[in-house]
Specification:
about 100 residues; five-stranded mixed β-sheet
């Protein structure tokens, strides 16, 4: 968001970071140069965030995906046989201790 111009701006690069969006909140983490090789830079990680759906459809599979800005593709983060149902998936933010 461009606050000075009061408009949305398309983002094409997260500058070595990963963005996490989901039911329990959102946060931005540096990935480039990190010892964690499981996360990808310039990716948006997303879980279900619709409370009505999450509560009404307790035993349905949940939406957990990564979107790569570099490759412009979505990747599911669990297998189709996975039973992610209740509670809804959340992101756990690592501490820098």
């Amino acid at each position: 968001m461009d606050l000075a111009q009061q408009r949305l701006v398309q983002v094409k690069d997260l500058r070595g970071h990963a963005l996490f969006l989901g039911f329990n909140g959102s946060f931005f983490l540096p990935v480039t140069g990190s010892s964690n090789n499981k996360l990808k830079a310039n990716c948006i990680y997303h879980t279900d965030d619709n409370i009505e759906y999450v509560c009404a459809k307790r035993f349905h599979r949940r939406h957990v995906v990564a979107f790569s800005l570099d490759e412009n593709v979505f990747t599911q983060l669990f297998t189709s046989s996975s039973r992610l149902n209740w509670p809804p998936p959340i992101w756990i933010r690592p501490s820098r201790g």
